[in-house]
Model the fold of this input.
Amino acid sequence: MVIALALVAGASFYTADAAKKKTKAVEPAAPVEQPVQLLTSSDSVSYAGGMSVTNGLIPFLIQQQGVDTTYMADFIRGFKEMVKAGSDPKLKAYVAGMEIANQVRDRMIPGMSKDFTDSPDSIVADLFYRGFSDALTKDSTHFTQTAAETYFRQKHEADMAAKQEKLYGPNREAGRKFLEENAKRDSVVTLPSGLQYQVLVKGEGEVPQATDRVKVNYEGRLIDGTVFDASARHGGEPAEFTPQQVIKGWTEALTMMPVGSKWRLFIPSELAYGNRDSGQIKPFSTLIFDVELVEIVKK
Done:
């Protein structure tokens, strides 16, 4: 009898176990969408309008939002939930948080990380996110909002200066050595400002004031001989401006040159573009310009 009971119990357990294995969890069915009925002209206009405004949306989602179109059903589900929620403030706040998170993760963090590359510091994403959320919850354990802004601004300025020194310090040193050697030439005049010039053609005309409009032919080069700009590249006509509108080295030279003169200017970076990166002109670049003062434009 004991053996028989054991066999019966074993059979029962086996049957129950088999049944469990055969039974699969049934997922809730997706809500069935009702067929669209366009009964009036307004119905048709509304429906067609909804379709028409999606033109270009999918490329935008892919390129600007990084959406994988494999999951378009999820996008549509989120769209419908937001529409259904209407003016629910809780859902609005949640959705806004997600949108801002996308911008911070995909744009702000990469931009800042690139900015700090080659500097003494770097951006740690997880701590950036934590600082972001702590500021919004008024958590001042480490910084107040004002203190954080001041600290970040000061560190950013110091790091960018260190980065420029690392990347372009040799550029400044090369310019300094060039000007030092150039000053030894008999034909080169060095002014107290550091500007150097060489008279190629001596003019006899009027000397312009800083506010006069002048016409100038010019060619600009780096100290390695690379031509980065010239009036000939802009239609061949002389450039027209006032001396006070250009870099300091030009302003000083033009207000000393008689009309008809052609000078070669050797301009240290502090009288040119300084620490700015202007395309081919890298920070701390010493520049060479051949400048011909064609005329003063009379009113």
